[in-house]
């Protein structure tokens, strides 16, 4: 079940056909889901194009809304302005293992890495699923990470899947959600899509579209959550513009009722599939197109709306989960149907 | 009329006695209001303590939510972590003049400035009131700036006063607003207060508490607004913590319905009256107290709530204004009473 | 006298024909110099192209090396990535007045500013010349600022002129200096030029090319200086690349012997004359060229070398000055000729 | 052999007794060195105090001089302002494995991590040793990382050890180096120490103290290096001050002749052993001391000098190495003795 199936549409702009990040042509998402005993975790891969990302990098930028997080790869992404691996999402203690998997995969496709060229910059983002998942077990393996990349497709599942398997959101069951907006520029359709790993928000703070509030399902344990928002678009944007767009994920989270809690690693990463950057350009000056700045408000609104709706999408798709140590997260659907 | 008189209370925390930034002991606010012909503008001064700020500076930090703004003084404020003049708010083209006034005033009180000590860092923030005000006239003078400082008091006016005289907000009449929250730490009362200069938001985007939306009063002219939020507290915070708190002003603006438009100079500045920093310390190592980080979520919530309510306070207090060239901004009160 | 006349060439790259920022086609520099009684100050204008900068903005970025400074305009420059007025340099207390002059000049050329379009973002950078100049007098007027812009030319003076009139550097007489490097890309010549307002460095820390040190001319009064470095180029760079290039001004200052003192406002601003940005684009997607990142090391080296040499240029051109209150700065030439 | 044994003393301040980061009381360094076949790599651990860092965190800050690097942990370090694990240095592709080791070690000492408390933030910094080392082999294991921590001591080796085993610097053999400065405040001795992992600089750019240049030992292969500088002190500094001090590592690198090449991950991290921050404070307001800002120039100079000398220390201690694929790096000592 998606957000709109539950009546949780957001904003005024029109979604794309899938209402997901895969409305951006070429973008796919894959999951490895772990559900066994006390393990409720997994890996989600976002692959922005079907080619080799190391050879054809994409312009990208990341913004830290609240930096209580343990990602890898964002520093170089902001310095060089490019993404050169798939983006992996997982639990906090799986970042190192996922990074290792991305490195080995990049080397396999580009044997000159670390020999004749420089190294490769793996990008892994995370949230802490330790409330439901036995995160100390460090159950995610490099094989799990690779399997998520292999499973990439345009029609992907949301809710309790992949990295979202053990996540919590506003005291309810969180997870993976997505949404998109169709944007018309120069008489052509473009898209901006968002995928969130929703694991943030204090119980009782959730605000549904129209202002409806959901009372806390559980007595308020201290938040130790996070939210990762990955924004993709096929509109050509320079790095500075990607940063501006990424920052609006923070608006979307606020619209859901969050105030970017001190213990939350709220990170937004935006990439564009326009203007791929060759690893070895054959000229000193590249030609490209770039959005005229006066049009950017449309993308800001789209990023804010789609982030908000992607969170509701995660909540709408999630099922109630009984996790480690008797911990339990009830789904929004269960709450709304009471 | 204040926000709560109009039923526009926000959030769950308790306000201070005045429900304004002046609930922070020592903080005062003064206005110079200009309303003559096509001039609808002014100056608002925030004075954080009654002493000489150059000799006893206050810890402060600023955060740029969206940098379409022309303030002065924030770079040094963030490098040295201190505020050493009153904070002036005015229209965009009055920044230079207000800065000159602050410099002359600091020199008058401290004749060694620029002679035996270094210089002084004036802090002036602004919004563009050009829709109602003839901003090209550059009508604000140094005398107006000084008069605002002289007029400082704890019980100050809100709405169409001072820098807020010609401001617009969500297509309605904006202006100056304020709110506060009482925070209990170690069994003692403390306060966090916010003052906003509200001049942001597209017509039709406003969301009142409970989710109520106000339809656009006027056909949507392109936003060229801004919002300045000044946050004061008597809780001891180090610079890094002040930045974290200031960032939550962005949450408050989002809760009002904004997405930090591309043309908006959305700036937050936070200061604490605890731990004043002497211009000439008599020791190399200063003693101070600082908030334990696990308590900071309470301040984040307070900053977000009070910023949201301060915007509603500006809207609630504002009266309809007929400005230059037949431009007109209707007050929220007028809209709600229709 | 220029740096190379005194044997103070830096680095390995070849300078342009003028060895100044005016080797970048279209860039000109003008000065207003004030030398009367205790007033030793002025204004320097850098005009990056001969057209109207508000209508045809240039990509630009600023980097704060040490933020003990009181500039105006850098926040918006970094958010929007464009420069829309000439760059003015002056003394610390002249920033407001220079900003007012830039605003009035922009309105004169574009009467829709603040009426039908948004406002204009004046860019003014400063150093504290209070050791030689009676900075409290605030002697710089808007007319002085305008005169500097009117005086713009490609063959401009360096040393004790314009904003450099009263500046000090490593305990010696500082001022305005410039240098450039010729860069070959795709078999065409390009240039990167630097202009500095040199007012930084503790007496005794200066290191000349080859490692020669100059003993302190005067007993070490505490540094309260600054250095502004403006970098221009005709190589197309996106905002992120301009920031990277600007940061290398910090290397040039370090090569002169500085450690970016705590009291120094060390700011670098880089702009490119390629890819001008129209105020009112007639399309949503602009076409442009941009430097391939693997070539950027050449620009980094050029920026570092030219910044270092521009400082020596300021020192080489400066004459000994007797300033207010018996204060005196000896020229490097006088020291070297002893 | 240390830098001063080779006549490579830097600056004017006095070193501590060991002239290393271990002059800061409580700080120790350990290495695991791998030298077998094509593997020339390792791990270096910096342990800032002998207790449990998760329970008693230290104030810390990181600065990115040039972000072509793949570290982990700096985002949270800058948000929360604290260090809660030892700092590990290794090769670029060992970051994930070292992070996993730090996580497991923290859990072993604090079984509530990821269960009743939040997670832990491992800090791992890296350089690319792929010129001499078969970095694709990913030879560093978690056991190697733990062994480096176990080997921590105050009298530690420099040169071709630990993470420095396979590093290159200015076309010569680089590695681990250290230096310190003794600083007197309020009539008591304090220390600031630096440890560098030196793997940066183009052949031919090296400048020795006094300005002596070393011609390129090898024809200039493109730089793909990096430099990590870790700065420790027992002077109490708040986060903002730690950032300011860390930035001066960039001055030290420039003084060695570098211009922070585009392919270099130049990162500085500064921590203080003063004001440890308890994981579970028993009060809302902590008492602490903090350096008065007017004294900070002394620390800036110390950080710049000690970083420069630490690089020379790495070069002085390194031996010539024959690495993978016939690659070879000659030591500075060998060059100087020719």
| Distance between the first and last residues' Cα of chain A | 17 Å
| CATH top level label of chain A | Alpha Beta
Strand content of chain A: 25-35%
Q: Judging from the principal axes of the Cα atoms, what is the shape of chain A?
A: globular
Structural class of chain A: alpha+beta
- How many separate domains of chain A? 1
Identify low-pLDDT runs of chain A.
none
Mind describing the biggest β-sheet of chain A?
A: 7 strands, mixed
Radius of gyration of chain A: 19 Å
How many alpha or pi helices of chain A?
7
What this model shows, in words?
With 338 residues, the first copy, chain A, is α+β, with helices and mostly antiparallel strands. The first copy, chain A, has a single domain (3-276, 290-321), classed as L-amino peptidase D-ALA esterase/amidase, CATH 3.60.70. The first copy, chain A, has seven helices and 16 strands. Chain A has helices at residues 74-80, 95-109, 142-150, 239-247, 249-255, 296-317, 332-336, and strands at 28-36, 39-47, 56-67, 82-83, 87-91, 123-127, 168-169, 172-173, 175-185, 188-199, 226-233, 265-272, 277-278, 285-291, 321-322, 328-329. In chain A, strands 3, 4, 9, 10, 11, 12 and 13 form a seven-stranded mixed β-sheet that branches. Chain A has a four-stranded mixed β-sheet with strand order 1-2-5-6. The radius of gyration of chain A is 19 Å and the shape is globular. The first copy, chain A, starts with 27 loop residues before the first strand and ends with a helix. Chain A binds chain D through residues 64, 66-76, 78-80, 92-93, 95-100, 103-104, 107, 113-115, 117-119, 121-122, 128, 130, 135-136, 138, 224, 263, 265, 325, and chain D through 64, 66-76, 78-80, 92-93, 95-100, 103-104, 107, 113-115, 117-119, 121-122, 128, 130, 135-136, 138, 224, 263, 265, 267, 325.
């Amino acid at each position: 079940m998606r957000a709109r199936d539950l009546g949780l549409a957001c904003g005024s702009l029109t979604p794309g056909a899938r209402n997901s990040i895969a409305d951006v042509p070429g973008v796919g998402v894959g999951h490895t889901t772990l559900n066994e005993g006390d393990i409720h975790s997994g890996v989600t891969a976002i692959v922005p194009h079907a080619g080799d990302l190391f050879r054809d990098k994409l312009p990208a930028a990341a913004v830290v809304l609240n930096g209580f997080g343990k990602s890898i790869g964002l520093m170089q992404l902001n310095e060089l302005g490019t993404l050169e691996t798939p983006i992996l999402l997982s639990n906090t203690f799986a970042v190192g293992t996922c990074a290792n998997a991305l490195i080995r995969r990049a080397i396999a496709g580009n044997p000159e890495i670390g020999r004749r060229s420089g190294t490769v910059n793996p990008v892994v983002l995370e949230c802490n699923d330790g409330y439901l998942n036995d995160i100390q077990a460090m159950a995610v393996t490099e094989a799990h990470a690779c399997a998520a990349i292999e499973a990439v497709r345009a029609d992907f599942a949301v809710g309790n899947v992949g990295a979202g398997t053990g996540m919590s959101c506003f005291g309810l069951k969180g997870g993976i959600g997505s949404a998109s907006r169709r944007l018309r520029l120069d008489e052509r359709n473009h898209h901006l899509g968002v995928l969130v790993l929703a694991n943030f928000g204090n119980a009782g703070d959730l605000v549904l579209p129209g202002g409806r509030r959901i009372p806390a399902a559980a007595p308020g344990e201290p938040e130790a959550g996070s939210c990762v928002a990955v924004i993709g678009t096929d509109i050509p944007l320079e790095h500075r513009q990607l940063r501006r767009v990424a920052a609006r994920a923070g608006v979307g989270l606020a619209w859901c009722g969050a105030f970017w809690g001190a213990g939350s690693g709220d990170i937004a990463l935006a990439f564009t599939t326009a203007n791929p950057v060759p690893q070895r350009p054959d000229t000193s000056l590249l030609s490209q197109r770039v959005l005229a700045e006066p049009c950017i408000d449309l993308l800001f609104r789209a990023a804010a709306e789609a982030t908000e709706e992607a969170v509701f999408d995660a909540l709408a798709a999630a099922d109630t989960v009984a996790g480690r140590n008797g911990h339990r997260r009830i789904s929004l659907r269960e709450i709304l149907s009471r």
